Description:
globular, alpha/beta, 180 residues
Amino acid sequence: MASPYFVSRDAVRVLSQYNIEMMAPDNAMAYGDIPNLPPGIIGTIRRNTNIVVDLAGDKAGALVLGYLTKFINPVDLRLYMVINPYRPFSWELQDIAELKAMLECFAQHPVTGMVSNPHLAEDTDFEVIVKGHRHVQEIAAIQGIPLVGLTVTDAFYHEACLEFGEIVKQINLYLRPDWL
Length: 180
């Protein structure tokens, strides 16, 4: 997993317990507010077809994506948009369409799937998940993007499976900043 942003880099110890190698900047700019690629990322991308790159959903992340896709075989690239419809600029169809267009422009590759991640942190209940996921389903259908997953925590996993089926993926939260 590679991430130039703060959340993933703080979970190195936890990720290593699951044999996930974290690649993050380790220099003076590591905690800067700009993308900063870790040493070795290009080599890892070239030799490993099973890598997740967390780039957030903004122009800075899209720029990094555009740079990195030059090193990825297009046949191997799966470009997913992970949508939490409750985040700013993630509810309106126009905002999602603009983000999709920007990612595709910089990556020179189509978005191949959408992952629904509806939540309101500790204020999440099943109704929040259902409403948010149904909204993401509509957006994916309008955009013509396959919906490849719905992520929920263990507290909602069984209920979500009954409601939405095999698309549901359980996620475990290992790192939560104090301010959340």
